[in-house]
Amino acid sequence: MSISVFLLDDHEIVRRGIAQLLESEDDIQVVGEAGSAAQALARIPALRPDVAILDVRLPDGEGVTVCREIRSTVVPPPACLMLTSYSDDEALFGAIMAGASGYLLKQVTGIDLIGAVRTIAEGGSLLDPKATAVVLERLRKGEEPPDPRYESLSPQERRILGYIADGLTNRQIGAEMYLAEKTVKNYVSSLLHKLGFSRRTEAAVYATEHRRGSGT
């Protein structure tokens, strides 16, 4: 039987390259593609692929979030293979927590990627046992791994996020931090992008929940 695959990557050239590579195999068929998290979440439930190859970093969110969503809502859930350009322990932990079956760097060879698709389609795992053990140990101790989205923010962006949660306007934040209002606006745009939000209110809710979770 053919293995159906869905591709999520914000770079069209990368998607085309992976699709061409996979389609060259008799037992693999690419049934859909997306360039954003929103597109993937809209298309995957209808297509119900065997395997979803998900880019970790996306313009409107994270592949880990997409993995978590489709693993919990699509029946039967696809096996998720996370692809990333960077070796990031926290993203790996997030992938494990989301139920991903594999985590590979984009520098992987074509043969290894094809092999990875076949392995997870058959129910296998490509996750490092040591990394999985660390996550399980954290859970046993009741420690949540840090949110990679928050970790990606600069110290300035974290301060501004806190002020957003307090309900301050850009002008008020600028006065508190001795920054021009336009500079604050640029910081806000940057942190919204990193957090995967489009609205200021979403960031405020996120910041409040993060405070509550971290006890600060």
Automatic annotation (TrEMBL):
The keyword DNA-binding applies. Keywords: DNA-binding, Phosphoprotein, Plasmid, Transcription, Transcription regulation. Residues 4-121 form the Response regulatory domain. The keyword Ion transport does not apply. Residues 146-211 form the HTH luxR-type domain. Pfam families: GerE, Response_reg. Coiled coil: none annotated. SMART domains: HTH_LUXR (SM00421), REC (SM00448). It comes from the Bacteria. The modification 4-aspartylphosphate is found at residue 55. PROSITE patterns: HTH_LUXR_1 (PS00622), HTH_LUXR_2 (PS50043), RESPONSE_REGULATORY (PS50110). This is Response regulator transcription factor. It comes from Pseudonocardia alaniniphila. The lineage of its organism: Bacteria, Bacillati, Actinomycetota, Actinomycetes, Pseudonocardiales.
